[in-house]
Task: structure prediction
Amino acid sequence: MQYRTLGKNGPKVHPVGIGAMSFSDFYGATTEANSFAILDAALEAGVNHIDTANVYGMGGSEDTIGAYFRANPTAKDNFVIATKAAISRKPDGTRFFDNDPAHLEAELDKSLTRMGIEAVDLFYVHRREQDRPVEEVAEALGRLVAKGKTKSIGFSEIAPATLRRAHAVHPVAAVQSEYSLQTRLPELGLVQTCEELDVALVAFSPVGRSYLTDTPLTFEAIQELGFMKANPRFTADNYPRNIVETDKLRAMAGDIGVSTAGLALAWLFAKSANTIAIPGTRSAAHFAEFLDAERLSLSNADMTRIEDILPIGWCHGDRYNAGQWVGPECYC
Result:
């Protein structure tokens, strides 16, 4: 599969990246050994993009990446590393977003220490602080580039108009957004703006938090996961409906002889040459399923069939509940 550019002048990365939230226990318990096996498999397959954040396991994801680099000293030279900051909590546990330049730099410094590296390739603002002008934030991120702590900057969950404002101050390499056959909001402006500005669109949850895979999480497993249990798409009412809908995609993948995740990712890559995916998994075997996308070249007829099976709006339940919606910018 042809590598894609992480921003206009950025490094070449495999279209399939590593979503390292799964190196924490967000989607269920995991181990350092599981994460190491995924990184080993990535190196062998030429997958070279790791996406993490300071809040994934409260630094645990970055600690795991750092431990891997200590055990494999040359590995860090083969990976393009992205991390994020800005999500914070008050003493009472209330979540808030801090885009203060000093806070962002301090958190980036901690991330660099945990991973044992001198700079990241990409540093994102994880959530925008609405009361702070995005131009001010972009300028502050640009100073981190000048200091050599990050090679490029990005934003997560921002609107196309916000991207334009930030990009006018300092080149933005990437924007992260949830994007998949299940969540197609980015097609209402973000995909187009990223293409126009030569900004990479980094799609998280590209396999629908397991719905777009051969083995979706069971409803019983979801009850043990705080975020998933509270998510409208995984409630007792909506879960069985969404399983029935996605069974159709699993049947198509079986007809073709590929994994459902590979088919879902191939669809995503065919939608825009600017799109890069960062699926997460706790299993090297499941990671191998993502790479099925490499051997798929979908025809127009294939794309039509996929979108007939799962048309826009098919999914039952909102993407987030009211609390989870705090932070992402709504633009349509």
